[in-house]
Amino acid sequence: MELGGLFANLSLGLSVAMTVQNLFWCLMGAVIGTAVGVLPGVGPTATMALLLPATYFLPPEGALIMLAGIYYGSQYGGSTTAILVNLPGEASSVVTTLDGHQMALQGRAGPALAIAAIGSFFAGTVATLAIAMAAPPLTKLAQQFAPADYFSLMALGLVFAVVLARGSALKAFGMIFLGMLLGLVGTDVNTGNTRFTFDISDLFDGLGFVPLVMGIFGIAEIMHNLADPQRRDLATAKISGLFPTMADIKRSIAPILRGTALGGLLGILPGGGAVLASFSAYTVEKKLSATPEKFGTGMIEGVAAPESANNAAAQTSFIPMLTLGIPSNAVMAMMIGGMMIHGIIPGPQVMEQRPGLFWGMIVSMWLGNLMLVVLNLPLIGIWVRMLLVPYRLLAIAILFFCCIGVYSLNNSANEVLIIALFGVIGYLLMKLDCEPAPLLLGFLLGPMMEVYMRRAMLLSRGDPWVFLQRPLSLTFLAIAVLLMVFILLPNIRRARETAFQE
Amino acid sequence: MRRRVFLGLAGATLAMGFSTHALAQTEAWPQRTVKLLLPYAPGGATDAIGRPWADKLSQAFGQQFVVENRGGASGMIGTEAAAKSAPDGYTFLLTPNAPLAVLPSLRKTPYDPVKSFDAVGRVGDVINGFVIHPSVGVKTFNEMVEYAKKNPGKLTYGSSGNGTSTHLRLEMLKYKTGIDILHIPYRGGADTLNDVLPGTVHMMNEPVSLAHAKAGKLILLNVNAQVRHPDFPDVPTLTELGITGADVPIWFSIFAPAGTPKDIIAKLNAKMIEIAKTDDMKAKMIAVNAVVPLQSPEDMAKHLLADIKANAELIKAANITIE
Fold first, then answer.
1. Coil, helix or strand for A349?
2. Total Cβ atoms within 10 A of residue A334
3. Which domain CATH number covers B76?
4. d(Cα A102, Cα A98) in Å, to the nearest integer?
5. Which residues partner with B254 through β-bridges?
6. What is the pLDDT of residues A455-477, one digit of tens each?
7. Whole-angstrom distance, CA of residue B309 vs CA of residue A324
8. 3-state helix vs strand vs coil in chain A, percent to 5
9. Interface predicted TM-score (ipTM) of this complex, two decimals
10. How far apart are CA A455 and CA A473, in angstroms?
C-alpha cells in the first residue's frame, strides 16, 4: 500500500477511535481485560462470551473496540499471575512462568512485570503498524500454508518443547507424549468417534486447557508450597526494587525485538500461533544465549522474549479475522460473533464497506496498548505487594478463583473436579522432577498435529511424500531433525547434564 | 424479627403460588425472565440467528428472553439440558436441525428428538449452496457435475465434520448425481474456509463462504433452499436444476421441553409469526442469509418428523457411520 493512502486510512481510524465514547469503550475493554487476565481461570473467551449480549446494545465500532481491548488487555494481565504465583492465565503465558516466577522468588517480581509490560507495549505497537501496512500481503503468506506445512510446523514446535525443558531430555520426551495422549481425549475430527470419554458427555470435546493448566500449575503449586514452609516463605519474603535496572533493560532489548518479529509472524497462522510464538521465542533466546544453562533460574530474557512474542501474536492474529473473516483462535471466533450480531459479515468486504470500523479498530488497538502500559506500570507496586499477603490467605484466594473461573467456562461442575484431579497429577509430576511446560505443549499441539497430518494424507490420497515435497514443510522438518540431532548427540547431552547439575 | 417476617412472606407467596399456579401459567405468561438455551458456543450461526430473536421476543412480551449458550458434544449437551428442564414455559431450546434431526440417526443421544420436546416454531432457514474455487475452471453447477464425472474423486469438499449437516449436503449431492467427490472433515466452517480460499480444498457448503462468493473469490454454484438468495439472483436452486427433493435447508427452530402447556406454546408461536412478518426482522435474518417460513407448532412437528426420516434414509444410503 502506498504511504499517502496509509495516512488517509490512519487518520480516518483516528477520527473514529478518538471519539469520547470509543475511547471509553477502549479503556473499559483494557481494564476488564487486565482484570480477567490477572484472575486465574477467568480468561478472555469466557469474559467476551458473557459480555457479547451486552455489546448488542452498543454501536458496532464501540462493541468491537471493547471486545478487542478485553483480548489484548488479558494478554497483559495473564503474565502477572504467571510471574507472581506461577499460574499462567493464558496458554501463551505458560513459558513466562519458567523464568518469571523464578525472578519473583528472588524478589525481582517488579522488574519482571515491568519488562513484560514494556515488551508487550513495544510488540503491540509494531504489530499494529504491521496490520495497518501489510494486512493483505501477510494474509496471502498465511494462505501459503497447506495442511502438510502445518503438520511440520507443529512437529518443529514439539521439538522446541524438548529444548526448553531444563532437566533430562528423556523426561521432557515423556511429558510431551503424556500431553499428546491427554490431548487424544474427545471427539475425533475425521470419524466423529469419541475417544477415552467413558460416555461422559463433558469429555466429548476433550479435556479443557484451562482446567488442565489450573490443576497442573495452580493447585499443584499450592500443594507444593504448603508441603514446604521454606519455599512458601521465600515467595513472600523479600522484594528488591520495583523497576528494572539499566542492565536489565539493556539485556532485554534484543530479546524484545526478536520476540516481536517471531510473534508477529506466527500470530497470523490459525491455531496455536500465540502459543507457538511464546515457546519458540523462549527457545530462540535460550539457543542464542551465552549462558543457556541459566534459563529457568530467573533470566530476564526468558520473560522479555515470550511476553513480546505473545502480545505481537495476539495483535497479528486479528489479520486473518479482519481480512478473511477466518478466526485464528477462540477469541477471534468471538469477535466474529460480535460482528455478526451487528449484521456485519466478516470477510474481505469489511475493509471496503466499513472503512471507519476497520481502521477505527486498528487505531484503537494502539491506543489500548498505550492505555495498558500507562495502567499497568503503576499497578506493579500493588501487584508485588500481593506477595506480602500471608500465604494461608493467598492460597485460598487462588483456589477460589481457579474454581470459579473454571466453572464459569461451561457452567460445568465436572470441570472443577478435573482441576482437582490434575492438581494431584501435577503434584506427583513436581515430586518426580518432571516439568509441566512440555506436557502442555504436547497437549496443545499433539491433537492439532494429528488433524493436520490426517488431512494432508487425505488430500494427497495417502501419499506420505507430501511432507517432503512441499518446500515449507521440508524446511520445518529439516530444522526439527537438526535440533533433534543436537539434543541427542551424546557429548552435547553430557555437557547439558553437567551444566544442569551445577 | 426480620427473618420471621421474611419467612411469613415466603410462606404466603408459596401458598398463593400453589393455588394460582395453573392460571398464572396460562394467562399471565411470561411473568419472569424466559431462558432460551442455545446448544452451541457463543459467536456461531445459532447466535447470529438466535440473538435478534431473543431481542424481539423480549420487546414483544415485556419480559427478558435471555440467551444461554450451552455448547459442546455437537450440541448434545445443551439439547439434553433443555430436555431435562421444567416444562413451565420459562425454558426453551433454540437449535439448528442437527441435534434433533441428524444426530439421533448416528449415535445414542441422551434425549429423544420427538418425545423429549414439543415444537414451537421455526425461526430461520439458511439459504446456502455449494461454492467452488475458480482454479477448478468451472462456472456453473452443471459444469461442476460434468467435471466430476470426467475426473472421479479429483474434486475435494470440506465439511464441518463427519455426520454433520454439511457432510450430509455432500452425500446428498453424490447420491442424487452419482458423482464422486473426496470428503475432508474440518472442525467448522471457518476452519474449512481457510483451506478453500487458497484452493487447497475445492468446495464447501456453508454460509461463511457467501461473503467470499460476493467478493468474487469463490463461485456459488447453486442454492439449496426453496427460494433464491436475494444477493445472488442468477444462481438457481437445486429444484430448478432438475434435482428434486434436495432443497432441504438447514433450519433453526424453537422447541419446548415436552409437557409445556399448549397455550403458552400457542401464544409464543403467534408472536413469532407476527415478528417474522416485520420488515425489520426479515432484514435482520437475510443479513445472516436466512428466511423465516411461517409455521404452526403442528407443522413444525411434522416437518421435524419428515426431516428425521429423510436424514436417516440418506445416512443409510450413503453408509455414514460414527459408532
1. helix
2. 26
3. 3.40.190.150
4. 7
5. B94, B121
6. 999 999 989 999 999 999 999 99
7. 37
8. 80, 0, 20
9. 0.76
10. 14
**What backbone torsions phi and psi does residue B250 show, to the nearest 5 degrees?**
-70, 125
Among positive and negative, which fits the CA dihedral B185, B190, B191, B195? Answer: positive
Q: Which long-range contacts (CB under 8 A, 24 or more apart) does A19-26 make?
A: A21/A59, A21/A62, A22/A61, A22/A62, A22/A65, A22/A360, A22/A364, A23/A367, A25/A58, A25/A62, A25/A63, A25/A65, A25/A66, A25/A69, A26/A65, A26/A66, A26/A69, A26/A364, A26/A367, A26/A368, A26/A371
Coil/strand/helix, residue B314: helix
**Number of structural domains found in chain B:** 2
Q: What would the pLDDT profile of B76-107 be if each residue is shown by its tens digit? A: 888 998 999 999 999 999 999 999 999 899 88
pLDDT digits (tens, 9 = 90+) for A179-235: 999 999 988 877 777 888 887 777 887 888 778 888 887 788 888 888 877 665 555
Q: Which residue range is the domain that position B191 belongs to?
A: 131-220
Chain A interface test: which of B128, B194, B229, B281 (most A C-beta within 10 Å): B194
According to DSSP, the residues that pair with A45 across neighbouring strands are none
Task: Sort residue A88 into left (φ over 0), alpha (ψ -120 to 50) or beta.
Answer: beta
pLDDT score for B16: 43
C-alpha cell at A184: 487424544
Q: Counting beta carbons within 10 angstroms of the beta carbon of residue A37, is it exposed (0 to 12), middle (13 to 18) or buried (19 or more)?
A: buried
Q: Residue B180: which CATH number?
A: 3.40.190.10
Which of A67, A188, A326, A336 to substitute to test the interface with B, most B CBs within 10 Å?
A326
> Which candidate from B42, B73, B287 shows the least CB-CB separation from A201?
B73
Q: Do B198 and A49 touch (CB under 8 A)?
A: no
Are B267 and B204 in a shared domain? no
Q: Do B212 and A147 touch (CB under 8 A)?
A: no
Same domain, B29 and B123: yes
3-state secondary structure of B223: strand
